[in-house]
User: Fold these one by one.
Assistant:
Number 1:
Amino acid sequence: MDKIKAQAEDKMKKSLKAMQDDFNTLRTGRASPALFDKIRVDCYGQKTPLNQVATVSVPEARLVVIQPWDKSLLGEIEKAIQMSELSVNPNNDGKIIRINIPPLTEERRKELARMSRNMAEASRVAIRNIRRDANEELKKAHKNGDISEDMEKKIGEDIQKLTDRYIGEINKDLEAKEKEIMEV
């Protein structure tokens, strides 16, 4: 019956990872290649992730440089960035694209902090749902006679400890993200 606990932990890890990936796409005042992870470029008739058609680097704290492997894609990359939700202005010099990341306004910072709190809350709900599903499986196993009442209780406590640990991780990541967003 440790299988139920292992499955719950695996799902909790995936939920935490999904939230961390979402956090990476939130624009802070600092440049990061992860900001461009969700951008898809029209490459030879196919929507392709930007990092598969170009090198994305951060030479300075507020500058991102995108160097396409095929120079003919410069226009498509520039268009994809302009159409994204990042609100940045790419500068195309014919060889590479430079993007200056402007500092965030106070209002935008608060909005991003609120968005990160919503993402964290969605992850907490997902973790609690995983706990609920695991506990239901335990009850079913006990009802079917597969495990004893003591075993059900012990595994249930272990699942609760996992839940507490992952919710703590979410809270810690949220705190770090909010601090990063609110930096001037």
Number 2:
Amino acid sequence: MHGHQIKYFFLVLVLAVFCSRCTKPVDFDQANDLVIEPVVGSSIAFFNGKANDFNEGAQGSIVTDTVSIDVFGNNFVQDNLVKAELIFELTNSINRGYSLQVDFLDAMGLENQSLTFTVPASPSNVPVLTTFTEVFEDMALVDLKNTEFLIFTLTMLPGQPITQDSLGEINLQSKGVFFLLVNT
């Protein structure tokens, strides 16, 4: 063997010794212990209304909308949903306060939960942001999983009369954040 060949031989031998000490046997059973915790967000409902949409003479002081929720009918969601947060964000620049009621109905139309939030007036017609977060865990989560419809009712609270010339608007945005736990 020549000098260069001997050096390469010892280099390969040293690398082989070190590499054999660095590797561990692969435990393929670790895949059975895999836990995935995805967090998924989704828009639920939104509403934009101008002050004159609530003209009291036109029976506009209450706005109601029904939203169908079909995500909870999925077996994957039923089995793996461990927590949910519903976030309601209202921006009001009308000189009147509002009440937002959200009713949770099951497939039979029976109410299994109801939330009510108060939104302050904006006397100077400057947008006032109000955020409400409702966390669903344990029994509240069970009720949420049985929900098929949400009924949003926005009611104008007593105050100065609203006319066709009244300024401002109210905007509602809502979203759900869903926490899943998937064991494989």
Number 3:
Amino acid sequence: MEKPVLSPNFTIEDIHKLREYNYEMTKDMTDQERMDLYNKEGWEVQREIERMKIASVS
């Protein structure tokens, strides 16, 4: 399944697309695989937030 294209206004349909995409990507994963995926992605977002904070201070 391709990553969904979201509208500029982010509608309820976009939320449905994201939920369907997430389900399709994770439906055959074990609980551990899902936890590993979410942790990995979560840490990537956290690092990006930290980089943005540092950039805004400079």
Number 4:
Amino acid sequence: MKIRKIMANMKGIPFKVFIMVLTAGIIGIIGVVLLKYDIEKLSQSYREIIEEHNVNRSYMEEISQKLYQHRSIIAAHVASENENDYKTFEEEEAQLRKELEQLLARFRERMTGNEREQMYHKVYSDYYSYVQNVEVTLQLSREGSTETAVFYLTGQMSDFLESVNANLSGLEQLTRKEMDAAKQKMNSYIRFSRISTVVCIVMISVTMLVCLIYCVTITSHLNLYKKNLEEEVRQKNLSLSRHNEKMLSLQDNIITGMANLIESRDGDTGEHIKRTSFYVGLLARALQKKGLHNDILTDAYIELLVKAAPMHDIGKIAVPDHILQKPGRLTPEEFETIKQHACEGGKIVREVLGSIEEKEYVEIASDVAAYHHEKWDGSGYNQGLAGEDIPLSARIMAVADVFDALVSKRCYKEAMPMEEAFDEIERSAGTHFDPRLAEVFLDLRDEITEFLSSTDVSE
């Protein structure tokens, strides 16, 4: 009786096993199919987030670039005293502002969601405040209130421009957080899919080899898909890196353009900037080679110093044209006015470049602009610094600036012969110049003479 009962029960085992295996196989297949669908949907979403991030970043970079171009036009307007130039600059300003409005309008359409919309409104609010200050600055410039216009340009406008960039950075960080969250979720799904795949293989492998192959294939495809996504992200980051390099190059060109604009106001064509930058680099590298000031003169420092040299006379933006271009001797009052360009230059560098350039460059450029008229014996201006209290960058700039001024033709003087200019540098060692720097500069006579022989110093 017992055996019959056992046998009867055993008859149902194959069917029960079949039902269990079939159920496991169906559940496994459905699970894998659903998982594959979810991962594909999540991957598509992640791709869309990456693409959205890149497009938004492109918008933000273009907005930032056009804003700096716009401020450069306003700066040129303030620097000019020519009515014809006013009209040209105002037409360029109006066109660029129209482009900015259109760009911001298109960008606003992409800023959906409460947090994004709030941050966008902050960006637009700061932009609107910036534009209001632009109108005030242009009006002051037209009326000839140059100093007040410069105050608005380097103060209020710079503050709102910096705030716009800060909020744009906040938008970018928000997008990055969304992208990182999506990536983490996708990685979580991928890890879960691997575990699920193993479970499915265990469940299905008893009777469903095809299902096993299918699950293994899905896992392989997921890994491949992840690699493809990572490669895509790497390529996008590489592209963004190249774009950043282009932006830095554009930024350097804008800075050089500002310096050339200032130099052109006192009759120079920009060659003074090129020549003094050459002397600065030549002298700094010679000092480094001789082991002098090696605690300061690193390769990176010299590169920044050469880049900062064009900024030395940027303070002349605050000096009226009738003084800069005066062909005769300046009156004491006029000389006092022109002396202010040094401290004004240091202030302008800190306020205008402080938010867009690295800290070390701003410090070097500020020192060069503020102290290049100080003298070794303390008789210079504006601070009356003496000896090594004068920053090394400004001492190097002083030698380069004075030498080029001596050998160059100006509206108020003829060019001095090179030999006489070298003699003057030698005579002024220990009074005007750091004697050690002057000595090394004189040792470079051949290189400087060769350079000047290929340069027109009459401009």
